[in-house]
Amino acid sequence: MADSTLWWLLAGGAVAAELLTGTFYLLLLALGAAAGALAAHAGGGLATQLVAAAVVGGGGVAVWHAVRRRGPAGAGENTNLNLDAGEPVHIDAWGADNTATVRYRGTVWIAVPAGGVPGGTGAHRVREVSGSRLVVEKI
Prior knowledge:
Layout: H1 3-21, H2 24-41, H3 46-70, E1 88-91, E2 100-104, E3 107-113, E4 122-130, E5 133-138
Parallel strand pairs: 3-5
Antiparallel strand pairs: 1-4, 2-3, 4-5
């Protein structure tokens, strides 16, 4: 069996595994295997094929990991990504631990002040959602 055939089978297997697991990294490794197959079609030796696969696949994984690690800046306060940002809530009282219980969207939420210190009771605005807590600021 030709080297390029083995590389194409490896690339197909990585794509199939990605479809089963949903791991984007496997697609990048499949691209690396495709680069190895193209190097085999070009007549490169085994060392050239392995280097091509490692550079493309490993480089793609490293770049994607760096991009994902950075993440979106300020996604919690971005009203295009977080539809709760800017919505009003009413706070009756703050607890000793600087949290309050509020009804919002038909359920009970824990609210925390944006600056760390409660600004009083009354109307507040949701600044962001942090996990299962609403970060609020006084209106």
